[in-house]
């Protein structure tokens, strides 16, 4: 498989997960101001600091080398346009052990990382940053490019803010909004992920919590689809079978992480208007903890959203039907009177006024029902 096929397969998968509730823009492309997470929205006593939240032809940027070997390990001093849009580029500084030594998605990798702004300002240095490749544990620029590096390779990566810390920037590390970054990376190690069935329960809880916290960071940045992905990975860890002994306390710890992930996933799915999926997440959480206040509250929010969505659809149908009826009436007047200008001018305001009153009655009634649903959920949760 060529570099282009490998990286575009990865990018396609990530972009499919990051499709927003409105199909016109993706999470990464959106300039919308998402609300910052508050305590009612997520299960975390101390939310993590703000961190990181195309398709094209992969080619060297120098036209005279357009027919060169696409393997970057043989292209020292040549830039590889990873996504073909000029926003993510990679240059080999020191060759590694060859294409066969490249890490695979799902493996645990360790890299040496130096991050700088494009003007040379140092952001941070990490001598041994470890993460799971493809899990969204790091900024997208690293997830996409490290898989193209050979073992021992040193590379320079230049990335647009879109694949780094985006329009919001970051508090830790300190990165300004919309900042392009320069990353110096050396691939140190790549190992297979541990067998979850053989993983000690304490380590399993820690790993699931780490993925959940990463989802919290995505949620805070408004990257709700990436948050759902992280929570899903955490859930897979908590639900995996075990071939080692586990104490009741450890079982309770895994269950606690699982319910928190389900609650936070429901919050993310609500943001994406995935109401049916959010409802399933709430139901699953309540199956384990029937008195969980946050799950009950979110259940109410989901039901309200479903009611309002139905009302919106019905109002749209009524508006369309009314418009068609008015057009038919006007056509009839034309046939009956020949000159319909005076009659239409007197009839139209009355019809419009009547329709506006009807629409608002529907809207206010539906809103009252929705608010009642939320109030009922809150009362039930409070009583419990």
From TrEMBL:
GO terms for biological process: negative regulation of apoptotic process. Residues 13-28 have a biased composition (Polar residues). It is an enzyme of class 5 (isomerase). PROSITE patterns: FKBP_PPIASE. It comes from the Eukaryota. Its EC number is 5.2.1.8. SMART domains: TPR. GO terms for cellular component: cytosol; endomembrane system; membrane; mitochondrial envelope. It catalyses: [protein]-peptidylproline (omega=180) = [protein]-peptidylproline (omega=0). Keywords: Isomerase, Membrane, Repeat, Rotamase, TPR repeat, Transmembrane, Transmembrane helix. Signal peptide: none annotated. One of its GO terms (molecular function) is protein folding chaperone. The keyword Membrane applies. Residues 30-53 have a biased composition (Acidic residues). The keyword Protein biosynthesis does not apply. It holds the Pfam family FKBP_C. InterPro entries: FKBP4/5/8-like, PPIase_dom_sf, PPIase_FKBP_dom, TPR-like_helical_dom_sf, TPR_rpt. Residues 1-76 are annotated as: Disordered. Residues 106-191 form the PPIase FKBP-type domain. The chain crosses the membrane at residues 362-382. PANTHER family: PEPTIDYL-PROLYL CIS-TRANS ISOMERASE FKBP8 (PTHR46512:SF3), PEPTIDYLPROLYL ISOMERASE (PTHR46512). This is peptidylprolyl isomerase. It comes from Haplochromis burtoni (Burton's mouthbrooder).
């Amino acid at each position: 498989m060529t570099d282009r096929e490998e990286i575009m397969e990865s990018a396609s998968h990530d972009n499919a997960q990051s499709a927003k509730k409105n199909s016109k823009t993706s999470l990464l492309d959106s300039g919308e101001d998402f609300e910052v997470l508050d305590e009612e929205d997520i299960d975390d006593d101390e939310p993590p600091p703000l961190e990181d939240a195309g398709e094209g032809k992969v080619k060297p940027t120098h036209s005279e080398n357009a027919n060169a070997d696409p393997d970057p390990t043989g292209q020292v001093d040549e830039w590889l346009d990873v996504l073909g849009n000029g926003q993510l580029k990679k240059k080999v500084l020191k060759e590694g052990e060859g294409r066969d030594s490249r890490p695979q998605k799902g493996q645990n990798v360790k890299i040496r990382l130096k991050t700088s702004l494009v003007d040379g300002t140092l952001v941070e240095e990490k001598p041994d940053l470890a993460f799971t490749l493809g899990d969204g544990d790091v900024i997208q620029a690293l997830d996409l490019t490290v898989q193209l590096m050979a073992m021992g390779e040193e590379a320079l990566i230049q990335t647009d803010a879109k694949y780094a810390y985006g329009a919001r920037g970051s508090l830790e590390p300190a990165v300004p909004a919309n900042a392009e970054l320069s990353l110096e990376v050396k691939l140190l190690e790549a190992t297979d992920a541990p067998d979850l069935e053989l993983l000690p329960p304490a380590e399993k809880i820690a790993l699931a919590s780490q993925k959940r916290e990463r989802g919290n960071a995505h949620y805070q940045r408004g990257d709700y689809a990436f948050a759902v992905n992280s929570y899903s990975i955490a859930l897979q860890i908590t639900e995996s079978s075990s071939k080692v002994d586990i104490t009741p306390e450890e079982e309770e710890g895994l269950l606690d992480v699982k319910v928190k992930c389900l609650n936070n996933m429901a919050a993310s799915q609500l943001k994406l208007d995935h109401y049916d999926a959010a409802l399933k997440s709430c139901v699953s959480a309540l199956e384990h903890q029937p008195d969980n206040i946050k799950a009950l509250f979110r259940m109410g929010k989901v039901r309200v959203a479903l009611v309002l969505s139905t009302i919106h659809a019905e109002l749209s149908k009524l508006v369309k039907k009314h418009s068609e009826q008015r057009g038919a009436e006007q056509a009839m007047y034309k046939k009956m009177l020949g000159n319909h200008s005076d009659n239409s001018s007197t009839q139209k305001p009355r019809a419009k006024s009547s329709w506006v009153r009807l629409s608002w009655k529907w809207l206010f009634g539906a809103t009252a029902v929705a608010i009642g649903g939320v109030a009922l959920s809150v009362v039930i949760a409070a009583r419990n």
